Amino acid sequence: MATSTSASAGESEAPRRLSQEFVAIACNQLADAADWWFDRQDRDSTTQRHGLLAYAAGRFVALYDVLRYRVVGTLRGHNQRVNCVRWITETQLVSCASDGEVIVWHCGEGSVSCIHSV
Q1: So where are the chain's domains?
Q2: How far apart are CA 43 and CA 10, in angstroms?
Q3: pLDDT higher than threshold 80 for residue 71
Q4: CA–CA separation, 114 vs 107, rounded Å?
Q5: Under a CB-based contact definition with an 8 Å cutoff, are residues 91 and 108 in contact?
Q6: Cβ atoms 97, 59 nearer than 8 A
Q7: Which of 67, 61, 62, 65 is nearest to 52 (CA)?
Q8: Higher-pLDDT residue of 99, 26
């Protein structure tokens, strides 16, 4: 952890420890910049939905766990802003960027890998 001091001239103050309280990653403001995979059997019900929300965040794709209320992964691979993300199966995600690059991702148990890039 970093330390910080803020003493007036002539005063001596002990260093304070800084702690991380909050980290955020914003979604790109585009109509197709987010997609939520949840159990498709619950699509028409009002029961608790679960799964991962994938959203475009600059040149990255962020994976947000809706049950734990936190980003659980960031997919890096695009060189330009990501414009669209879509789940195509429970474990496969497609992302498209401003430069026309399309990446198919495989999101397995505890790992994410690029399957194909065009």
Answers
A1: 25-117
A2: 65
A3: yes
A4: 9
A5: yes
A6: yes
A7: 65
A8: 99
- The residue with greater pLDDT, 109 or 72, is 72
CA angle 104, 74, 30 (to 5 degrees): 75
Give φ, ψ of 106 to 5 degrees. -110, 120
4 contacts: CB under 8 Å, gap ≥ 6: 15, 16, 18
Sheet containing 92-97: give its strands across: 82-87, 92-97, 102-108, 111-117
Neighbours of 103 (CB within 10 A): 20
Q: Model pTM? A: 0.69
Q: What is the DSSP string of the chain?
A: --EE----TT-----EE--------PPPSSTTSEEEE--GGGTTS-SPP-SEEEEEETTEEEEEETTTTEEEEEEE--SS-EEEEEESSSSEEEEEETTS-EEEEEEETTEEEEEEE-
pLDDT digits (tens, 9 = 90+) for 15-49: 888 776 666 777 888 888 999 877 555 455 444 44
